[in-house]
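FORM 12-B: Structure-to-Sequence Request
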């Protein structure tokens, strides 16, 4: 997901659409964690609309409200960053722009 502090809606929409088609325990079953940088989202929109909607999802999303929290992660505009770890070390790094790409990394 150059590191710009904003929610990249196309990437977030891609993940949401993909996860909606999966079983509720999909992320947990794949030992996956969904991190989302919401630092660029207006606070009022976040509190009134985004957070209540996210709470209804059957999977956990770890939210970063401060741009610095996830600034270390590599990003490509409008793509999902997928980092695979093995024994605590980065095994692979992928940038995914579509559903077939997400399916391939899982």
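FORM 12-B RESPONSE
SEQUENCE OUT:
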């Amino acid at each position: 997901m150059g590191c710009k502090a904003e929610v990249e809606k196309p990437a977030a929409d891609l993940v949401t659409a993909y996860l909606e088609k999966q079983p509720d325990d999909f992320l947990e079953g794949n030992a996956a964690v969904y991190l989302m940088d919401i630092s660029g989202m207006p606070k009022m929109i976040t509190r009134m609309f985004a957070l209540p909607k996210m709470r209804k999802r059957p999977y956990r999303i770890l939210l970063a409200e401060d741009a610095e929290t996830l600034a270390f992660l590599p990003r490509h505009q409008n793509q999902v960053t997928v980092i695979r770890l093995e024994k605590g070390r980065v095994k692979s790094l992928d940038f995914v722009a579509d559903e077939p790409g997400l399916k391939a990394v899982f």
